[in-house]
Amino acid sequence: MGLNALVGVRVLDLSHVIAGPTASHYLALEGAEVIKIEKPGKGDILRHSGQALAPGISVGFASINQGKKSLALDLKTPGGKDVLRRLIETADVFIENFRPAAVARLGFDYAAVRSLRPQIIYASISGYGQEGAWRSRAAYDHVVQSAIGMSMMQGLEGQEPMKVGFPVVDTATGMIGAQAILTALLRQFRHGQGAYLDISMAQAGLQLMWPDASRVASGAADAPRIGNRGFSGSPGAATFECADGWISTAANTLPQFTALCQVLDLPQLPGQSDLIDQQALQRGGFLVAKDAPRIHALLANAMRGRQVDALERHLMDKQVPCAKLRTLGGLVAQCQNEPLMTLPLRHTRYPQGVMTDFGPGYKADQNAEPALDRAPGLGQHTREILASLGMAEDEVTALIASGAAAAHS
């Protein structure tokens, strides 16, 4: 958990899979009560995707749904709609990721929700936003990466497009969504004013590409695809193969590049005017190559016989920014054994395994907070939530019997 600044805030989350639940996950980490509203039966599809920690709780589901409450509610039934309306009257935030027309057909578009709770913060999360010709397009992470130019930025010129290797747009959408909701909550607390938030995967993806997206939008041409080279353009900013692995270096400035060349036994290279623009060095800033392929070949040849761990240590001792290429599993294993960085690993036990997470992405007040409660089973909190609305036990039982709601046994 983070600073617990959202204790007392009630969030109704009708979203599923990654983007919307990630947004409410960050709110839960700050202490908000998040009620996850799922369709009776199987619930969120992510519950059943990948390794299971418990029946209906996969690792992927648990990672972004811990600490939430689950209410199994059929919003196509009169009883289910009535319960949601009563919950809206108690809520501060409403999150949905239906297609624009679908949420209106259910009767829970912004106008309808606002009529029940004028100060509500209503967040619509979609692929391309609520406006424009693409507003009703279905969207998944890699499809959006393709649509917004992200996949065409990866790799080298002449190679096939390459998406980022994890659902980066989904996750960024959740982060942007949480930021937007937090900003709206601040205004709500100060002025009692609600908000309608149009949050899209396309917008979030462009935010991740912000410097390049802004540059191109301002009239510049698309930048060339640079593969594993650094964005600085410095000849010392690239990825190289070693004898037993790979290493990335970011020797962007003259002191960094000089130190790199000394470690690699190439001390004359920084002063070679046929390879390095010496006039550019006098102006400061990053190195400029006159013959980038030749410089890369010299550096690559010098690194090819080096052991990657030893080279990483040597370069870091010389203040050259660098990193051995690790797998995610390799990084986690190393961090569990060595204090490499600020990374509060936290563990939650489930019947079929242990869920490890990294908290909210920052450390608050120097303390590592305990992990959130387990991710909920489908409908685990149905009876508790219905009772909180003042419904009598026989009324709750009748609602469940009708199929409008479901309770986890």
Describe this structure in words.
The chain is of the alpha/beta class and 409 residues long. The chain folds into two domains: 10-208 and 357-406, Crotonobetainyl-coa:carnitine coa-transferase, domain 1 (Rossmann fold); 236-332, formyl-coa transferase, domain 3 (2-Layer Sandwich), CATH 3.30.1540. It has helices at residues 19-29, 59-65, 78-88, 100-106, 110-116, 141-147, 168-191, 201-208, 210-217, 254-263, 278-283, 292-303, 308-317, 328-337, 382-388, 393-402, and strands at 10-13, 33-38, 52-54, 57-58, 69-73, 93-96, 121-126, 195-200, 236-241, 246-251, 322-324, 346-350, 353-357, 405-406. The strands form four sheets. It has a seven-stranded mixed sheet, sandwiched between helices. Strands 9-10-11 form a three-stranded antiparallel sheet. It has a two-stranded antiparallel sheet with strand order 3-4. A hairpin with a 2-residue loop joins β3 (52-54) and β4 (57-58). α1 (19-29) crosses α7 and α7 packs across α8. The protein is elongated. The model has no long low-confidence stretch (mean pLDDT 89).
What features would you highlight for this structure?
409 residues; alpha/beta; Rossmann fold; formyl-coa transferase, domain 3; seven-stranded mixed beta sheet; three-stranded antiparallel beta sheet; elongated
What order do the helices and strands come in, and which of them pair?
Layout: E1 10-13, H1 19-29, E2 33-38, E3 52-54, E4 57-58, H2 59-65, E5 69-73, H3 78-88, E6 93-96, H4 100-106, H5 110-116, E7 121-126, H6 141-147, H7 168-191, E8 195-200, H8 201-208, H9 210-217, E9 236-241, E10 246-251, H10 254-263, H11 278-283, H12 292-303, H13 308-317, E11 322-324, H14 328-337, E12 346-350, E13 353-357, H15 382-388, H16 393-402, E14 405-406
Parallel strand pairs: 1-2, 1-6, 2-5, 6-7, 7-8
Antiparallel strand pairs: 3-4, 5-14, 9-10, 10-11, 12-13
Helix pairs in contact: 1-7, 7-8
